[in-house]
Design goal:
globular; single chain; 6-stranded mixed beta sheet; 153 residues; RbsD-like fold; alpha/beta
């Protein structure tokens, strides 16, 4: 255990998040997503896991150390419901509330059609599979930057 680091963030996840650069994609997936096979195509090349953690709690832990991309563009994508692109399932509403709270403002997620989501995910830096069992608990986060004056010393 480390002070100030949430227990959901194991060493492998912290290393991957730290190694990511501005504009890199992070996939946070539910238990139904083909996480392992998609992760093999990612830049990291293998799957990371938060097995007993639901998506909202996983994303809250990730966002405790991970800067989202600039406020000028949406930085969190959500997988669209097949045939119902405007429907936002409960799990996505819960993640939206987490993002808004962490960002201290409304930061709407952008929808990604299912097959396009898979395509983007295969180009991501890494994939973190969560224990989220609800459908459509899949998200793509874009890494931002931390200004020099905000770096802890």
């Amino acid at each position: 255990m480390l002070k100030g680091i949430r227990p959901e963030l194991n060493g492998d996840i912290l290393q991957a998040l730290s190694n990511m650069g501005h504009g890199d994609y992070l996939v946070v997936s539910d238990t139904n997503f083909p996480s392992d096979s998609v992760a093999r195509h990612s830049l990291l090349g293998h799957l990371l896991t938060m097995e007993n953690t639901p998506a909202p709690k996983a994303i809250e832990a990730i966002l405790s150390v991970f800067p989202l991309d600039t406020p000028l563009q949406p930085s969190v994508g959500r997988m669209e419901v097949i045939g119902k692109p405007d429907e936002i399932p409960d799990v996505q509403q819960e993640v939206q509330a987490v993002v808004d709270r962490v960002e201290n403002k409304a930061a709407p997620m952008y929808p990604i059609e299912r097959m396009a989501f898979y395509d983007i995910a295969r180009k991501a830096y890494c994939v973190i599979a969560t224990g989220e069992m609800r459908f459509y608990g899949c998200f793509i986060l874009t890494k931002g930057v931390i200004p020099a004056n905000e770096v802890a010393r």
